[in-house]
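Researcher: Structure for this, please.
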Amino acid sequence: MKRYICIHGHFYQPPRENPWLEEVELQDSAAPFHDWNERIAAECYGPNAASRILDSEGRIIDIVNNYSRISFNFGPTLLSWMQRKQPEIHREIVEADRLSMERYSGHGSALAQVYNHMITPLASRRDKSTQILWGIEDFKSRFGRDPEGMWLPETAVDLETLDILAGAGIRFVILAPRQAHKVRNMESNEPWRDVSNGRIDPTTAYLCRLPSGGSINLFFYDGPISQDLAFGELLKNGSFFKNRLMAAFSDNDRHWPQLVHVAVDGETFGHHHLQGEMALSYCLHLAEEDPSVALTNYGEYLERHPPVFEVEIFENSSWSCIHGLERWRTDCGCNSGGHPGWKQDWREPLRNAMNWLRDRAAQVFEELGPRYYKNHWHARDRYIELILDRSYENVNRFLGEHASGASSPEDVVNALKLLEMQRFAQYIFTSCGWFFDEISGIETVQIIQYAVRTIQLAEELSGQFFEEEFIRLLKRAPSNVLGDGGQVYEEYAKPAKVDMLRVGAHFAMSSVFHESMDAEEFSCFSVSADTYNRLEAGRSRLVTGKGRLTSNITRAFINFQFAVLWPGDHNLTCGLNYLHSFENYRKMEGDLQAVFNRGDLAEGIRLMDSYFNKSTFSIWHLFKDEQRKVVHALLEPSYQAAEASYRQILASNYTVLNFLQWLHIPAPNLFRDAAQYVVNTDIQRLFSEDELDEERLEILAEDAKRWSLRLDDRTLRFIAAEWISRKMGNLEETPEQTQLLKEIRNVLGQIQNLSLGLHLWKAENVYFRMACGMFQQMKERAASGDPAAMDWVEHFTVLGELLKINVT
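Model: Predicted structure, C-alpha cell format:
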C-alpha cells in the first residue's frame, strides 16, 4: 500500500511597516540586522531556499531548495516586503513552486493565505470575503496560477469561512486534529463516529459539506509529531525526524494510501531551531531515497486519492487556543508565558474597540463611497490590484474602471483615501495583536497604530470625530504595565502619527547633512525642492527652500516652504508650512539669512517661530532610520574625541599589555577596554572597505587572541560574512581572477581564527554553483598543463576546505 509524506510550513511575520510610511523602521532588538524581517530572512527564509546536506564529516555535499519539496504558504504582507527588500529569496520561493509542479504531477506546493492574518471566524462576512479574495489575487500575481489550497490564520475556522473559500475555487484547507468533531465513511454509509479531542486519523483527506450545498476538502495534520517538531528536539537530527514520520504509518485498520503530514510555523526551520532547515533537508533526502515512501503535496494526494470519509468540524476552533477562539477576544489563559501574574483581560475591550472602529469606517465608506465609485464595495475587493501595483498608470486604469465618472484631483485623493481607510480597517484585526501577553507589546501597538491611521483617514474624509470615543473604549482595557489601553494609544501609538508637514520636515532636516535636496523618492512619498539655498558658518548651517510633496498612495500633495537652522551641536530646528506666496517665502529667507550671517542664532529661532506660526519641528520628528544617521552626524566630533583617547591609551600601553600577558597578570580594565574598542573598530572598518588590508587584519587578529579580547561577535560575524559574500559574488561574475580568489581564501582563513561563527550561506551558495561549473572547466585546463589554471584550482580547493564544501 502506497505511503506518502508531506511537511507543511506556515511562513509568516506580522506586518511591521509604519502605517504612514509603508516601510519597516529600524528595530534595535534585531541588531545587527536592520529589522526582524531582515534577520529572520537571513536565519530562515534564505537558508531554506538553499539548504545544505552534509556528509559524515560535516562537509556540504549538496545545496537544495527546501520549498520545492515541502508544502508551504507565505503571508502576503511578508512576501510584499520580501519582493522589495530580498528579491533573490522571493524569486527562489516562486521558482520552488514551479519546480514542485514538475515534481508533483502539476500540483504546486505553494498555498495562498488569508491576506493579513485576520482571525476569520471573528470577522464580518464582508471582511472574510475581501481577505480571501485579496489572498487569492496576491497569490496569482506572484505564482502565476490559481491556488488550490489556502491557509487559515491560526487554522481558525467556521463554516461560513469554508463556504466562501469553496465559492472562490479553493479545494482544500489544513486544520488541527482537535478541530474535527465527527467522521463517517461515505462509501459504506457507516454512522457518524465521534473523533473529538484529536482522535481523528490524520492520514487521509476528508470531505466537509457546507451550508451552501457545496463542499471542501480538509486535511488534519499529525498533532503529536507537529508539536514535537515545533517545541521538541526532532530537528536535532534529520534521520531521527524521518524515522519519527515513518513510525506514524500503520496498516492496522487503514485500508487507504496513507499520508503522514505535519504542519508548523515555517520559522521553525532555521529561526526557532538553529540549522533546522538542514535537518529538514536531510529528512527529505532520506525520504526520497526510501522506496517504501514518496514525498507529495496536498494537491497531488487529493487528485490521486479523493476522500472516502466525510467530516464535521468544531466551528470557532483553532490550532493555538484550546478554548477555540478565546485567545483573540478574552482572557482564556492562553499566553506566551514568562510573565507570572499577568492577565489578558485587555483582549475583550480591545476587540470591542476595534469592532466599533470597523463599523464607523464602514459607515463612512457607505456614505461617501457612492460619490466616487460605481460599486464601492466591489472597488474595495479589487483594491488589491493597487496594493500590488501603485504605479501611476495602474491607478489611472483602476479609477477608469471603477470610478463613477470624471474626477477632479481632489476627488481622486478622496477616492483613494476611502480605500486606504478600508485597508487599515482590516489591518487592525491582524491576529498577532491579541496573541501575546500585554496590550503595550509591539504587536498590539502595531494594530493600534493601524487604528490611528484608520481614524485619521475617516476624520479627514467625513469631518466627524472618532478618536475620543475610540480612546474611551480602549480605557476599558487594563494593562499589566501601564494604566490602560488609552495610555498605550496616547504614548505608544499616536506619536507615530504622520501628516504631510512632518514628512516634508523630515526631508528638510535630512538635507542639512546632504549636499542638496533634489527630487527624491522616500517610502511612499515623492519630494522635490524647486528652490534650495544653504549657508554655512563653521559647523553652523542654515538651509531654506520651497518644494512639493506628494503621496504616491493617495496622490495628496502640498506645496511647502521651509527653513532649518543647525548651530553645529545636537540641536536642530526646522520650520515648515504651506507655501502661500513666493513673496512671503523670499522675505522669510532674506530675514533668516541676515541674522544667520551676523551670527545671531537665537534671533534666527525667534524669527522661525514668527514665520512658521509654531509649525516647527526638531530632530525628534525625523523618522527612525534617518534620525539615527543624523544623530550620528551630530555626535561625530564627540565620537572622534573619545576614539582618539582610546587610541592614545592603547598606543601608550601596547607593550605593557604584552608584558602583563607574558606574566599572566590580568590587564587593568582601562587598558583592556581601550584595546577592545580599537581592535573591534579597526576590524569593522577593514571590512567596510572593498580592498581589505590583509596584513593589518592579521595583526589585529593576533592582538585579539594574545590579549584574550572580547570581540563584538554579533556585529563582526555579520559584516565579515557580508564582505566574503560580496567578494564571492564578484568572483562569480569574473571567475578567472586568481588574485581575488586568493584574497578571499586568505581573509577567510584569518577570520576563522577569530572563531566568530560566520553565517556564510550566501558565499557557500556561490561556491557550490562555481564548483558545479567553473571548477570543472579549470580542472580540465589544469590537467592539460595550464599553470594559471593549476594555481586557480589550488586556491579554489583550499577555499572549499575552509567553507567545508566537498567538491570531489
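Researcher: Any notable elements?
Model: The chain has a mean pLDDT of 93. Residues 624-662 form the longest helix (39 residues).
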